[in-house]
Amino acid sequence: MIHLFGDRLKDLRKEKGVTQPELASLFNVTTSTVSAWEVGKAQPNYDILIGLADYFNVTTDYLLGLNQDDHAKIEKLRSACQEAGLMAGQDFTLEEFEKAMLVVETLRDKKNG
């Protein structure tokens, strides 16, 4: 999902004709930070994510590559983690969600492999 975010951000930035340094300046981050977002090595904080969505006139779900089915999966995963005692009511960060999904995919691959 992070990589999808980076791809979408890069596409939106290019469509709008904005350079990485210009985008970095708009959001008070470094050019290397924008580059890291675009290649999936980092992710923006919540406030910047909302700002990016507003700037590009898209939803945060679009930027993150989420759809309604993903929301249902996130909720199921959150419930399972709470039941297993792995989290106590707090929300997943995007990074935590992706790590949890990697574990789920690994288990599924082992089961199907």
Could you characterize the architecture of this molecule?
There is one protein chain. The protein is mostly helical and 113 residues long. The chain folds into two domains: 63 residues, lambda repressor-like DNA-binding domains (434 Repressor (Amino-terminal Domain), Orthogonal Bundle); 45 residues, no CATH class. Helix 2 crosses helix 3. The chain starts with a helix and ends with a helix.
Can you tag this structure with a few keywords?
2 domains, single chain, 7 helices, 434 Repressor (Amino-terminal Domain), elongated, 113 residues
Topology:
Layout: H1 2-16, H2 20-26, H3 31-38, H4 46-56, H5 60-64, H6 68-83, H7 94-112
Helix pairs in contact: 2-3
Beta-strand residue fraction:
under 5%
- Ends apart, CA distance between termini: 24 Å
The helicity comes to over 70%
CATH homologous superfamily heading of the largest domain = lambda repressor-like DNA-binding domains
Radius of gyration: 16 Å
* Mean pLDDT over the residues: 82
Q: Which shape, going by the Cα principal axes?
A: elongated
The low-pLDDT segments are none
